Each structure stands twice: as structure tokens, then as C-alpha cells.
User: Fold this.
Amino acid sequence: MMTGSGDGVVTICVCDNGPGIPEEDRERVFEPFQSSDAVLAVAESVGLGLTVSRKLARMMDGELSYSYEDGISTFRLSFPAVSEPAPDQPAVVMDGNEESSSQSRSDLVA
Assistant:
């Protein structure tokens, strides 16, 4: 995993050196109930994870994308950096590996 920020954008990349997603499936895997034909399907998967993730990214004016280059698969999540929380949102402070907030984590996903 790699992270970075610059030009007012925060980016998180998850990379691996697996076989990759075939070029013809690279956008299709973001559609509901889809997966790559070349990837073994996970029995518990319904094919919504990437769809929901991309939709959430776009709701935050961001993007979730996939690329395969030089034998490396990369899922890239990018969104605008925010210097201050919105007035109606609690501040979240990242301190090393700890996260503190005025709300519990379960409140944030509810």
C-alpha cells in the first residue's frame, strides 16, 4: 500500500504482483454483480464491493480506478484533500496508527 498527497489530492494505492485483470474487464469489474472472468470468483462475493467503493469515492468528489503496468496491479483511490472538517462533522485526527474522534467508529459507519 502507498499513500500520498499533493496538488490538493489525497491518494491511496493498493498494489500487488498477481496476474492482473484482463484489459477488457477493467471497467466491467466496477459494475454491479460483475467480476473478471479470469479471476476465480469468491463463493461469498456478490460483486458489489468495487461498485459501492467507486460510488462512495465519487460521492466525495474522488475516484477509484484500476491499472496494470509492468506486472503490477494497482487500485487507486483519490479524493480532494480537506484542510478543515465541514461544520457539521467531527474532526478526525490521525496520530500514528491511532485514530481519535468525537464519535466512535461504529457511529461513523451507521
About this structure: Residues 96-110 have pLDDT under 50 and may be disordered. Residues 55 and 63 are 8 Å apart (CA to CA).
